[in-house]
Design goal:
- It is a single chain.
- With 909 residues, this protein is an alpha/beta fold.
- The chain folds into 4 domains: 23-49 and 308-524; 82-301, no CATH class; 550-811, P-loop containing nucleotide triphosphate hydrolases (Rossmann fold, 3-Layer(aba) Sandwich); 818-889, Alpha-Beta Plaits.
- 49% of the residues lie in helices and 15% in strands.
- Strands 2, 3, 4, 5, 6, 7, 8 and 9 form an 8-stranded mixed β-sheet that branches. It has a 6-stranded mixed β-sheet with strand order 16-17-18-13-19-20, sandwiched between helices. It has a 4-stranded antiparallel β-sheet with strand order 12-11-14-15.
- The longest helix is centred in the first third of the chain and has 37 residues, at 31-67.
């Protein structure tokens, strides 16, 4: 086609303004949902603030009543005991522990692993002799003074009791050999079980250090392998006693636990070594008893503390709350996709960039309001998570999260097509991330056995980086609350172990990646204009090759044109040669356009449109008739940009639909077969929105909306300001027609516009269409022959993918309906006589119907006269009873049926 200036497209700002106004009105109507979204964080913060205040009151009351500020004049005596590893972590032989004297790992299954002590020194014989005296045998079960007591480590409940004598903690006494099921009662009521104390010689202190380090190196080995203690007796001999005690508390032990090691374990170990040395020198009767330990008299007050599980619940709830908007935001975007509203907007000129920009802006505004409500409510609540940490740092982190969340919503919206699916996936994702954060991410972060690289790998899972950030804020808040710091600020980002910077980096990377994936899948899976591109659409060379293949395959379906269709094809060819004149005289020109769907499951390719050539002049209404499945929908879909032609093309105002569809959208209007409307927007708001997309503004827009409402009879009685969801089916159809006509489009596609209308409304709509034909082309599909005859300047019957006839209604009736339809009903015994009389009158009469005594005949007009037909009826009445008879001229419906049958019969042959 020749060079033609494209219609002036609405600028990006105009489109964005139209969409933003529409979204504001739409969200205003959904205020209950939005209000609930914004109130949710306030409710959660209020709940946690209330629980924290109540726990503080209860804890303070309990502290004052039971402990308070207590003067301890006579502290409790603590019988000394060793702290040994639990059975599941006592040292055993593994591949990374190349010592044959260590116990077999099977002892962990049977539950009888010994507590292992390592020994070294310059005088091996003296040291091993001392080892035999460390765990003296029981001579009197009632004499416990000489026993070496031991218990697995446990955190003390308060400062006034020793954890070794917790009734719930097992208590042992160490022996070189234990008898089967040996146990004795202990004064506190606990059962005192025998446990083997295994003493192993090592050649040097450095060997001991290496072995203990290797056993507890969690970065290399998963199994915990802990020794009870080690003794290096150095240069000890009978004249000199010199010993070094080696212990390694677990890295996970708390501060209080470490103090217990210092207070209780080390003195007992030194006493055990000293006793063994004395007994080697002086005999077994010499003992240096270690009876008890106790704190000095003091005044102690236990501060009221919020249990740690409150922090855990707040951290978990924060993650769930911050992921909650995903479901709401995704539902809004997928709703427009499910209802084909985005396609409708695209066909009326909305650009994809404007759509996604405004959708992103809307999601960003809602999400930021949600976050700020949460942070401000937390500040006023007094929760340390909000008050101790820097507000600006929290805002920046959550701003990153909000953008990540929007990109995730866009990705989800590009992959699903229904609101229910989006809601299910969004809710499931929120619960899954919350659950896995608690049981996977938190344990990975807190574990000393997992490297920082692996933790970063875990945080890459969507949502885990959010949990890591919340975890860091909660950790610093807990430190600040306990007087160990001031919460997290910008300067703390460089602290060792602070993972917030890494978390924000992961969020930013995932934000960009998911936006790119959302854009890709939106075009490959479900584009806004309904077309699905090839997964390799960005490789232009492959795309061109594919188009060439498609053009070659389209030649598989030749068409046999009738005379009028052939004339239309020649007309199109002539117009294509006169490109410049064609663009000004005809609004639409279809040049041998074809649509072939590829074969699947062994079936051959299906030709939906077999090379259609058609020219629509300005101010012309062209009616397309055809049975269901004829290919009308496929043709319309290509013309409005929902699907791409297999070969051929069409020009709208000189614009090629295969390469300039975005410009074509600006000069066309569409009334789809099914009404695509927002239920909560009024008819007037619909027209204002689509008018702005058509570049109308100010008084022109207001006047166009008023005129459109009046033309379709939606102006009076407040109908224009009612929600379209409350409209009847006929009112929705009239509104859809008004939308298609607003903005003075150059071509309008009306797909069965009068469906569901009462006779009065249908006639009024016909008047609107007749007036709308001025200076624009209209392509109308309908199953109503009355509507086609009343509105269309030309008609085309479309059957089996091809145009079978073209012309105005009178021409078609004359060409395909040059006969009278004669019907007569008599008794069944006279059927043959009636047929004989008709054939004598008209030798080429064709009987088209026979049921009971009723027969119908087609009588060519050029072979009979009306007077002869009336005479036949009179003769019949004189010879036999005639119950009824009728004579009718050919209707458009008869033409349609005849052409359809002929086409189907030809295709069957």
């Amino acid at each position: 086609m020749g060079e033609v200036s494209a219609p002036r497209r609405a600028a990006f700002g105009t489109q964005a303004d139209a969409l933003f106004r529409k979204n504001l009105v739409y969200q205003k109507r959904n205020k209950s949902q939005n209000l609930f979204l914004l109130i949710t964080p306030l409710v959660v913060v209020a709940l946690f603030a209330y629980l924290e205040s109540k726990l503080k009151e209860v804890s303070a009351a309990k502290s004052d009543q039971e402990v308070g500020a207590t003067e301890i004049k006579e502290p409790v005596s603590w019988p000394p005991a060793l702290y040994i590893p639990s059975n599941t972590s006592r040292a055993v032989g593994f591949n990374f522990m190349p010592f044959s004297d260590l116990p077999s790992p099977s002892c962990r299954i049977s539950g009888d692993c010994p507590a292992t002590f390592l020994l070294t020194g310059t005088n091996r014989s003296l040291v091993m002799g001392m080892a035999e005296q460390m765990f003296p045998p029981i001579e009197n079960p009632n004499d416990l003074d000489g026993l070496v007591l031991a218990t697995s480590f446990s955190i003390p409940q308060n400062y006034l009791s020793d954890p070794a004598f917790d009734p719930n903690s097992p208590l042992y006494y160490l022996q070189s050999k234990c008898k089967a099921n040996s146990s004795i009662p202990f004064p506190s009521g606990q059962e005192l079980k025998c446990l083997e104390g295994l003493q192993l010689w090592r050649n040097s202190s450095s060997a001991i250090n290496k072995e203990i380090y290797t056993a507890s190196d969690g970065n290399k080995h998963k199994e915990a392998n802990k020794f009870a203690a080690a003794f290096d007796f150095l240069n000890t001999n009978r004249a000199n006693f010199n010993v070094t005690v080696i212990t390694r508390p677990s890295a996970a032990d708390s501060l209080i636990a470490s103090m217990r090691y210092t207070i209780t374990r080390l003195p007992r170990l030194v006493n055990m070594a000293s006793n063994a040395y004395l007994q080697v020198l002086q005999g077994p009767d010499t003992k240096m008893l270690f009876e008890f330990m106790k704190e000095v008299p003091t005044i102690i007050r236990i501060d009221a503390r919020i249990p740690s599980h409150m922090d855990f619940f707040l951290r978990t709830a924060t993650v769930a709350i911050l992921l909650y908007p995903i479901t709401v935001l995704a539902s809004g975007i997928v709703y427009e996709k499910e209802k084909n509203l985005r396609i409708m907007m695209k066909m009326h000129g909305l650009n994809d960039i404007a759509y996604w920009a405004i959708s992103y802006l809307y999601c960003l505004i809602v999400s930021l309001l949600f976050i700020q409500f949460y942070l401000i409510a937390g500040k006023f609540s007094g929760l340390s998570f909000f008050t101790k940490n820097d507000y600006s740092l929290q805002s920046v982190f959550f701003f990153f999260h909000v953008n990540w969340q929007i990109s995730f919503v866009f990705l989800l919206a590009s992959l699903v097509s229904t609101v229910k699916t989006a809601q299910v996936i969004g809710s499931a994702f929120m619960m899954l991330v919350t659950f896995l954060s608690v049981f996977v991410a938190s344990r990975c972060i807190e574990s000393a056995d997992i490297s920082s690289t692996l933790i970063v790998f875990v945080e890459v899972f969507p949502g885990f980086s959010l949990y890591r950030g919340v975890y860091e804020f909660q950790k610093y808040a807990a430190f600040a609350r306990n007087g160990a710091g001031f919460g997290m600020g910008w300067k703390n980002l460089s602290d060792p172990g602070n993972g917030l910077t890494t978390a924000m980096t992961i969020i930013l990377v995932e934000w960009v990646v998911m936006l790119l994936l959302a854009s890709y899948f939106d075009q490959v899976i479900s584009s806004g204009d309904g077309k699905k591109k090839s997964p390799l659409f960005f490789l232009q060379c492959l795309k061109r090759n594919q188009q060439n293949l498609q053009r070659n395959s389209s030649q598989l379906f030749p068409t046999n044109d009738s005379s009028d269709v052939a004339q239309e094809r020649k007309k199109v060819e002539q117009l294509m040669r006169e490109a410049n004149q064609a663009s000004t005289s005809h609004t639409a020109i279809c040049d041998n356009i074809k649509k072939i769907y590829p074969g699947r499951d062994g079936n051959p390719p299906k030709a939906a449109v077999k090379g259609l050539s058609l020219a629509l002049a300005r101010s012309e209404c062209f009616g397309m008739l055809g049975p269901n499945g004829a290919g009308k929908t496929s043709f319309i879909s290509m013309m409005i940009g929902l699907t791409e032609p297999t070969s051929g093309t069409a020009y709208i105002e000189g614009l090629d639909i295969t390469t300039q569809m975005d410009e074509v959208h600006t000069c066309m209007g569409v009334c789809p077969q099914f009404d695509l409307l927002w239920d909560t927007l009024t008819g007037r708001e619909h027209l204002y929105f689509y008018g702005r997309l058509k570049n109308l503004s100010g008084s022109r827009l207001a006047q166009a909306v008023e005129d459109a409402l009046k033309e379709v009879n939606l102006f009076h009685g407040g109908i224009a300001d009612k929600h379209s969801g409350k409209y009847s089916g006929g009112m929705k159809r009239r509104l859809s027609v008004a939308i298609s006509l607003i903005g003075d489009p150059k071509i309008v596609y009306l797909d069965e516009p009068s469906t569901g209308l009462d006779p009065a409304s249908r006639n009024a709509l016909w008047s609107v269409v007749k007036r709308a034909k001025q200076n624009r082309a209209i392509l109308l599909t309908t199953h109503s022959m009355e509507e086609a005859e009343a509105l269309c300047d030309r008609l085309g019957v479309f059957v089996d993918g091809a145009l079978r006839c073209v012309g105005n209604p009178k021409e078609l009736k004359a060409r395909y309906g040059g006969y009278f339809i004669f019907t007569m009903t008599t008794t069944q015994g006279n059927d043959a006589e009636v047929e004989d009389m008709v054939l004598k009158l008209c030798r080429n009469a064709n009987k088209t119907y026979h049921l009971g005594g009723t027969q119908k005949f087609d009588l060519p007009k050029h072979e009979v006269r009306l007077a002869d037909i009336f005479q036949l009826v009179e003769n019949a009445k004189s010879r036999f009873p005639v119950q009824a008879w009728a004579l009718a001229d050919t209707t458009l419906e008869d033409v349609f049926i005849k052409v359809t049958r002929q086409a189907q019969a030809a295709s069957d042959e």
